[in-house]
Amino acid sequence: MRRLNLKRKGKLKTEFYGIELSKDQKNFVEQTLERIRDLSPSSSKLTLNFDDNGSELSGFLAIKCFEISFFSSKSGSGPIDIMMKLKDDLETQLLDWKRTRFSSSLYNQLTPKTSFEDCA
Predict the structure, then answer these.
(1) Nearest alpha carbon to residue 23 among 12, 32, 9, 34
(2) Cα–Cα dist 71/62, whole Å
(3) Contact between residue 71 and residue 61 where contact means Cβ atoms under 8 Å apart
(4) Residue spans per domain, the chain
(5) pLDDT: is 13 or 102 the higher one?
């Protein structure tokens, strides 16, 4: 009986997020997504897609939750380069949102509530 050799030579590539990624690229992308998820509002849904139209590789990452959504679209030389650009852009958006969200809630907590009726 003959045995089949199912081992592949070279790096195994599997299609993830719309393009083929090597195991190392997939691990990097998923670790980066996890970091972004940690910064995102709770119950957020992340959607990542890469698109290779032959002349250019681009990526799109969306974070959606009940109250707000964040989007980024970048082009680059490869999936890791694009993922870094997407991460940087979305981290900036998330930090800006957090500054606005928490500074206004802190302001509301610290500002005394006054009523004109109290002055009469």
Answers:
(1) 12
(2) 4
(3) yes
(4) 13-106
(5) 102
- The Cα–Cα gap between 40 and 87 comes to 12
Backbone angles phi, psi at 114, to 5 degrees: -115, 150
Helices (H), 1-120: 23-39, 79-110
What superfamily does domain 13-106 belong to in CATH? Answer: Ribosome hibernation promotion factor-like (3.30.160.100)
Those residues whose C-beta lies under 8 Å from the C-beta of residue 24, and which sit 6 or more positions away, are 11
pLDDT tens digit sequence for 28-69: 999 999 999 999 998 899 999 999 988 889 999 999 998 899
